[in-house]
Amino acid sequence: MKKKTGILDIISMAFLLILSFIFIFPFYWILTGAFKSQKVTVKLPPEWFPLSPTMENFHKLMQNPALQWLWNSVFICGITMLIVCVVSSMAGYVLAKKRFYGQATLFSIFVFAMALPKQVILVPLMKLVSFMGIHDTSWAIILPLCGWPFGVFLMKQFSENIPTELLEAAKIDGSGEVRTFSSIVMPIVKPGFGALAIFTFINTWNDYFMQLVMLNSRAKLTISLGVATLQQEFSTNYGVIMAGAAMAAVPIVAVFLMFQNYFTQGITMGAVKG
Amino acid sequence: MKKILSLGLAAALMATTLAGCGGSGGSETTAAPAADTGTTAAAGEAATTAGGSDAAAPAGAVEITWWAFPTYAQDADKPAGTYEAEIIAAFEAKNPDIKVNLETIDFTSGPEKITAAIEAGTVCDVLFDAPGRIISYAQNGKLVKLDDMFTDEFVKDVNNEALLNSCKSDDGSYYMYPISTAAFCMAVSKQALEAADAMSCINMEGDRTWTTAQFEEMLKKLNAAGFNGATVYCSGQGGDQGIRAFVTNIYDSQVTNDEVTEYTLNDEGGIKALTKIKEWVDAGYMLNGSAYNGGEDVDQFVAGNTAFTTLWSPGLASQRAETLTQNEIEAIALPFPSDDGVPELEYLVNGFCVFDNGDAAKAEASKKFIDFMCNDEEWGPKDVVRTSVFPVRQSMGDLYPGDEEMGFYASLTKYYSPYYNTIKGFAEMRTYWFPMLQAVLNGDSTPEDAVNDFVTKANQSIANAQ
Amino acid sequence: MKQSKFNKIRMRETLISYAFLAPALFFFCIFVLLPMIMGVVTSLFRYNMKGMTFIGLDNYVNMFKDEVWQKSLVNTLILVVGSVPITVLFALFVAAMTYEKNPFTRSFFRCVFFLPVVTGTVAVTVVWKWIYDPLNGILNWLLKSMNIIEKNIMWTGDKKFALWAILIILITTSVGQPIILYIASLGNVPKDYVEAAQVDGANDLQVFWQIKWPSLLPTTLYIVVITTINSFQCFSLIQLLTSGGPNYRTTTIMYYLYENAFKRFEYGYANAMGVVLALMIGLISFIQFKALGSDVEY
Lengths: 274, 466, 298
Hints:
The structure holds 3 protein chains of 3 kinds. By secondary structure, chain A is mainly alpha-helical. Helices cover 73% and strands 0% of the residues of chain A. Chain A has helices spanning 7-33, 38-41, 56-62, 66-97, 103-115, 122-131, 139-146, 150-159, 164-172, 177-205, 208-214, 223-233, 238-258, 260-271. Chain B has helices spanning 2-19, 24-36, 41-51, 82-94, 110-120, 131-139, 152-158, 161-165, 190-195, 212-224, 240-250, 268-283, 294-302, 314-319, 321-326, 360-375, 379-386, 404-411, 426-441, 447-464, and strands at 62-68, 98-104, 126-129, 177-183, 185-189, 231-233, 287-289, 308-312, 331-334, 347-354, 390-391. In chain B, helix 4 (82-94) links the parallel strand 1 and strand 2 (98-104). The chains are: A mainly alpha, B alpha/beta, C mainly alpha.
């Protein structure tokens, strides 16, 4: 295919690069800001790169239970991811491949609930969680997020790919439902598994709202909530806040970069052919 | 894993159903007993693993939780909670049968956290705060009465009816045990004023009282010399008492009537004050503070970006001392300017309350702990000094001998105005305050309309809370 | 005979299916459905710290009369109406620019535009707060040093700018997913159609509108749905940046709900808002999903 490079292309490309710069900037600023001294962080004109990097902010950050926060985030995201993956792949498979009573209704309810922002059930959810005695624990975030039906929806999409003939052949061979699921279904939906896992992990990590409402104790905060708290306590000290923000952002960005193909796939599968 | 979890959950749910889905009283008690029964051990264990921080308490010990706003000053560079931990260590040494767990909270998200925790039944036992919120919790029946702590000796020692009344709810019982108090005031930067040749505008004699005319003169000089005035901060409710006192003082208005039964800010003086402030902001003498809250306004002041601030107290002075020195700024505290030169100041009262968590032993232990913090021979005065303000107990005397600045702050107590922070619906009123200022500053409505609207809504909030 | 056998099979399938669905339904019913029902029920009560009193539909009546609620509804709609077209065009532009590049470049740009989403609202807001700061912020400094403005502008506190300032952050934190979707679906446009059209002498614009755009329609509709829902939920930006100010200019329904629940302690009222918000979102997504559904089965 022949392509001539016109002025328009160059302008568009330049525009694209400027936009990229704006999108990278916050992350870049957090990373570099974490190593700047307090005075430098609010300096104008800004110091575009830390000329005299310092670890001072991290020392101050460590006087807070920042590592505990980080661990809480990892724990919450990890467990949520596990439960969501198992539960959703089972449900997604039958929704895609079985014909049963109530199927259509059930699926519509799931789809409707998916569109519902969880914030609207905030107060009752909090009441419920406290009835169970798990308010202000990691489970107060994990369990409600496991109820969110996006995973079911996504896994249904992936399960549509399972050839029906294969399932029927298995049935004729006398394979039980559980075996069919583990030996035929699972291998086929594996990419979906990866996509859902990473998707859940990232979304849970950044689910500020749930964390804000469900967690109180300083030792139980997640890293994002911890940073928001720091922002309020240390409003004067940008350096420490940046160090905290870096601690919240770097791990999750790293995870994203490592698994971005799965992630992209998850997003695409969850959407097209809806 | 999943199975255990589901079991635990199911059990927890059962417990819930059995306890009945009735009033909120039930919610606080369900959690604890459920964890004791064998069936729900899984849920209990899960919760503990998640937290992972519960240290084992000695057998038979009462465990209480203390939530503290950053009211005690910390030693330089120490994180929130360091001093509090020292108090706890000293208390636990004397009372080995009580274990105190500390949580530090901040002023921005703290109040909402407390609300959430009250709803969820996970609120602390002891809270260190001020009457505004504490009395509203009392009015909602969430607190333990502290009448037995207000002994005749204590009441006589405090000898200040207004202050004692601020610790009472409308049922006549005491719910807050006060430790220290001080007036809110404002502060100017000596460096800026000197550079703008405006030192003559302020009064450094006596109680440093001054008039609105002098204040306006100072604004003009600062502006001419290129300094920014303070922000009329109103992005949120943090620190709003400072700017509210500023508004009421400049033309001698009052937030409420003397009986604290009705809002009266829409009197002539209040409207005039808001009109004047709008004028000042439009002329660039003061900054439109719709993007700043009280804390951020103080940040700008101590960073040297603004020449004065309308939110200052001895506590803030000590918390920000280090930054001020770094930026080579000397802050001079002043009362608010007023038309007649006699300020009417709002004041803070620091004190403790005890939440009713349905456990008498905890309530007793909490009271003991509060008593220790306020009345221990060694720690009482020390704690007062850490709040950087003045003891409510007259018998403690002058805790800041020879400190001229503190002497000035102490002199302001005679200008205390009626304390309205315990008015019903106070919390709701605060949510109307800053939008009102924003409406005025951004020209959405005239000062008169805005303040009338505010007073209507605020008065409605009193009715709502009945 | 045949019918009953069929029913038997179907019955069996149903049993098995529900066994597989059980865990998902368990979580869903307890943590989504039950709170939803509780929310609807309590929205009929005057429900605060003191207790509950049944007041029928009063909360709803008051809500529609509540000026602040009306303002938040308008703000929310402005955010939706503002973010949806910009997001679509922006995403389309980036995707069109990058989908034919080599895989490395493509995934580079994909990552770049997804970065703010992954970084998380809290961390990103820390930086934006500084960008918008009237006195120390970089935006005012930049504009002043380029002589575009003379006086500092109070981005998040000025009634003319506040909502737009929020909108910009909202877009940067939500455009990542649409870009990924567009890149994927542009890659799916059959090459032969495009080439055939080019042979027929169609220019780039014609190729785009007549060949590519129709096959992008389902994706576009889906993007419209998710961006709409996303904008309806805008909360943390407001909570972290403006507290709804100035004078309720950035209060969204979601933020107002939060304020009512946690600052005014009016849980019943907050729940009523939640119900209405859910209905609005439900209705909008229903319409959009319908449209999507009919278009997709090609």
